[in-house]
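Hi U.,

Before I forget, here's the chain from the pilot set. I'm dumping it here mostly so it's searchable later in email.
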Amino acid sequence: MEYAETVKAINHLFTYKIFDRQIYHKVQSLFSNLSVRDAAGIFCDLSNEAIFGLYLILDDLKTTNEAKEHIIYKYYGLKIKEQASETIEGSLVEQILEDYKKTSFLALESLIVKMLKEDRISENYFEKFKGSFDREIIEKEIYSNSIRSKIRGKFPLSESELLKLFEYENYKLIEDALAQELIECSALPLFRLPNKGDKNKKIKTVLFNKATKLIEMKP
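Structure:
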């Protein structure tokens, strides 16, 4: 069976959102016709109904982990889009954590990081994330989350907070704080003109120039 026909057949099986063991066996048979490459990329061509249906049988489905990881990532992407509010519901976060514990799929970690960047997860889950995912990555995003909250509240950043942002190379947040004049006066001298071979020289130069202008504006 050709790839396009296989996709069409899988989508058709889940058209009416009905699931039973017979459908599982049909899906398994269709997946067995796919090459490793096609199985990994099929999530792009499956209907939303098929993605939701496949998620229910993913544990039993005999296919590559790469294919499963792509399907589960798309599944959660669709579930997140369904959320009307800014903050993702706790039950969905718990579900992601449970699936990560079961699969260790990096796609789920990247999904959590993405939601942290978008400030869509309650801080009630932050400690759980530190114990579940790569601690360094999660701590960086949690810290950035707290700084974004501080900037939204119009609270100036301290020297220690600025140094931490430099450590994390979060120049976007530093630039946002400078643009809103939300860096304490005592912290402005921390900006330095980078040397010729310095990493991120361009953005560091931009930040130094902006900080220098703020210093010159101060009485």
